[in-house]
């Protein structure tokens, strides 16, 4: 359309339509080149503040002193020259007062935020362009939970702390050469530093706070000051691929829970009750259907329900518990796969299921879990049953102490209902969101007598379901096709299935074969269920052998022209080696080292010098701030021989590090897995543990 005609048309449109058309025109004219020019200062962009009609992060309550407020403002203004600071200071102060943080809404870019094809980015290197693509995907409104607050998922998983950082990072990446590395301190771009072509192009650390000061209260202050950031896992490392990742993990978890608890391969007619349909938890609805069961998922935020329903991930929505119970009974009886979103508080749902048990004698639920953001329970991650959603949000901002009390009372009620149902045969597990940890702190009845402090009345899904899978070397391996072409993704799917099928034919153990079969099934189902949200990405669980073989095959397909552009390899931090988390990823390590973080830190360092394009190390993620250290990577495959060698070396380390650690802790699966890896690679030499065969010698020695 001619620009003059567009401007004439604007004159006659109502305000809302004007804004939309201006947005389209501005995006088309400025595109990515303007984003890469650095902070737009002359002139300043219009300050539109918080946009209406999109979800926003809860108001934060950092409780800053007067001096700390000045410091927060001073820290924010240092991104801008003195002649602009006077104009920006009042609005930044207002953001701090209203929202508890300075997001710099004025600098929210007027561009369609999404993963553009890699060739569209005005960069000097493909690696930098790939990183830009991944950043913009994390902030895509169809992917991000609170896009204007730069939150990708989990309620507080930040990509950056403010929008000035976004503009600066995009500028640095556009200027970067193969002889430079961009250094990121908790969202802040420290700068481009000279390095060499074999070094990572990007090094990220998030939340690296001195341990004695890594508390929630201190975090709220430091985040408000703009000096640290909670990157969750793949939010702050720029590797999130939308809820597809957690869909896959949840499918595997539910399938393996059925095998372990229900002794069932077929889950039709089995009922799975849980909560949360947000950034990560939104995957549960789709996962339930793929697994073949009846999924009832509670969610207090109507916007989240509608988003998942619009995406086709949630089949039905109801705010009526009578209707929910009727639909549950029908689907259960007729063995219909169903995902039903209950618009209400999960405590009400659990208590209604107890009521049905008491009045009819019928246990209507087989499997249960929870995916509220309990790692962040007092800042909007969990909403108490005593209040409606809007009323609770208001109380959170006006009386956080009272909100905390209600949350803890609500957790106790939730656990009481779960306990009643579990006593009658329902199997419940903690999904690694710190639900049982926070319930224990609230005084709920979750104690497991005689257990160590990482164990509760109910297991974490790692302890009973996924832990042995990690010990086999399996974890969430993923890739992104940077062409943006769905055909490239289909080609990689075909390659991955062929690799796994070939491995089965060549001979693998029974336990490994089952995991390969589950993942071949997953890839087929993923194609049928339209799981792509944002970038053209895929995830599967694979071991060292599978990851390396898939990477090599994809790289060669790029070289041969069967895939049109580079592919970014990555994984969730929630993996074999990537995370030290005593209440989740390392909760099945019983040698006393579950609270040690050597594995995650060593993984970050080892990936960096073995070929990763970028690496990240985070405090927090999943179970919360101060509870976990985790890291991740990105590796760009461009079809070159060098990329193949990097993939072989880095991916092998990225798995074997964690398997070796799990082996040393006493896990039999890990022992077998690392011994097999040593047979296949003569340069791998791992210290193996000797078991204490006679336990009596311990007692006898200690009696002396």
From TrEMBL:
GO terms for molecular function: urocanate hydratase activity. Its cofactor is NAD(+). Gene3D superfamilies: Urocanase like domains, Urocanase superfamily. Residues 242-465 form the Urocanase Rossmann-like domain. It comes from the Eukaryota. It catalyses: 4-imidazolone-5-propanoate = trans-urocanate + H2O. One of its GO terms (biological process) is L-histidine catabolic process to glutamate and formate. InterPro entries: Urocanase (IPR055351), Urocanase-like (IPR023637), Urocanase_C (IPR035401), Urocanase_central_sf (IPR038364), Urocanase_CS (IPR023636), Urocanase_N (IPR035400), Urocanase_Rossmann-like (IPR035085), Urocanase_sf (IPR036190). Signal peptide: none annotated. It holds the Pfam family Urocanase_C. Residues 468-674 form the Urocanase C-terminal domain. Its EC number is 4.2.1.49. Belongs to the urocanase family. This is Urocanate hydratase. It comes from Calidris pygmaea (Spoon-billed sandpiper).
């Amino acid at each position: 359309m001619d620009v003059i005609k567009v401007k004439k048309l604007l004159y006659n449109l109502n305000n809302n339509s004007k804004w939309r058309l201006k947005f389209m025109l501005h995006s088309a004219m400025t595109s990515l080149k303007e984003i890469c020019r650095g902070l737009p200062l002359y002139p300043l962009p219009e300050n539109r503040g918080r946009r209406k009609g999109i979800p926003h992060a809860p108001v934060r309550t950092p409780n800053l002193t007067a001096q700390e407020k000045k410091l927060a403002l001073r820290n924010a203004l240092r991104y801008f020259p003195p002649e602009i600071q006077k104009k920006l200071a009042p609005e930044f102060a207002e953001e701090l007062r209203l929202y508890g943080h300075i997001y710099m809404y004025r600098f929210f870019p007027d561009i369609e935020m999404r993963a553009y094809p890699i060739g569209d980015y005005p960069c000097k290197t493909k690696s930098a362009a790939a990183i830009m693509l991944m950043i913009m995907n994390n902030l895509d409104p169809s992917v991000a939970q609170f896009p204007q607050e730069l939150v990708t998922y989990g309620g507080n998983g930040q990509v950056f702390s403010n929008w000035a950082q976004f503009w600066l990072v995009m500028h640095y990446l556009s200027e970067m050469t193969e002889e430079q590395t961009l250094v990121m301190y908790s969202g802040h771009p420290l700068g481009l530093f000279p390095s060499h072509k074999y070094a990572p192009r990007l090094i990220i650390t998030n939340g690296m706070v001195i341990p004695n000061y890594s508390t929630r209260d201190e975090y709220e202050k430091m985040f408000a000051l703009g000096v640290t950031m909670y990157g969750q896992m793949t939010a702050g490392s720029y590797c999130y691929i939308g809820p597809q990742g957690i869909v896959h993990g949840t499918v595997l978890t539910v399938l393996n829970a059925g095998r372990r608890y229900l002794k069932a391969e077929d889950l039709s007619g089995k009922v799975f009750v849980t909560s949360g349909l947000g950034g990560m938890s939104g995957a549960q609805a789709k996962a339930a259907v793929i697994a073949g069961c009846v999924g009832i998922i509670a969610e207090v935020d109507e916007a989240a329900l509608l988003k998942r329903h619009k995406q086709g991930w949630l089949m039905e929505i109801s705010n009526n518990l009578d209707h929910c119970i009727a639909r549950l009974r029908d689907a259960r009886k007729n063995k219909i796969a169903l995902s039903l979103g209950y618009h209400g508080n999960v405590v009400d749902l659990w208590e209604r299921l107890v009521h049905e048990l008491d009045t009819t004698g019928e246990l209507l639920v087989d499997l249960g879990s929870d995916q509220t953001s309990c790692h962040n329970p007092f800042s909007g991650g969990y909403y108490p049953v005593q209040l409606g959603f809007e009323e609770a949000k208001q109380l959170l901002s006006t009386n956080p102490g009272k909100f905390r009390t209600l949350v803890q009372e609500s957790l106790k009620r939730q656990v009481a209902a779960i306990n009643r149902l579990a006593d009658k045969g329902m199997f419940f597990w903690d999904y690694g969101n710190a639900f049982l940890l926070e319930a224990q702190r609230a005084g709920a009845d979750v104690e497991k007598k005689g257990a160590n402090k990482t164990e509760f009345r109910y297991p974490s899904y790692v302890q009973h379901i996924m832990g042995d899978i990690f010990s086999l070397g399996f974890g969430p391996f993923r890739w992104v096709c940077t062409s943006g072409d769905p055909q490239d993704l289909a080609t990689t799917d075909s390659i991955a299935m062929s690799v796994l099928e070939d491995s089965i034919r060549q001979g693998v153990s029974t336990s490994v074969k089952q995991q390969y079969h589950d993942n071949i099934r997953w890839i087929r189902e993923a194609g049928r269920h339209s799981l792509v949200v944002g970038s053209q990405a895929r995830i599967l669980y694979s071991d060292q052998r599978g990851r390396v073989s898939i990477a090599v095959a994809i790289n060669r397909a790029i070289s041969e022209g069967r895939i049109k552009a580079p592919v970014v390899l990555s994984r969730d931090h929630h993996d074999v080696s990537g995370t030290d988390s005593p209440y989740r990823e390392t909760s099945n390590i019983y040698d006393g080292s579950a609270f040690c973080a050597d594995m995650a830190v060593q993984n970050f360092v080892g990936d960096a010098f073995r070929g990763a394009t970028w690496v990240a190390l985070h405090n927090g993620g999943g179970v919360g701030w101060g509870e976990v250290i985790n890291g991740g990577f990105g590796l760009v495959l461009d079809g070159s021989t060098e990329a193949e060698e990097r993939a072989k070396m880095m991916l092998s380390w990225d798995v074997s590090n964690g398997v070796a650690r799990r082996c040393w802790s006493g896990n039999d699966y890990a022992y077998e897995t690392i011994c097999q890896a040593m047979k296949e690679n003569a340069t791998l030499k791992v210290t193996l543990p000797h078991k204490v065969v006679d336990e009596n010698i311990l007692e006898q020695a200690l009696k002396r």
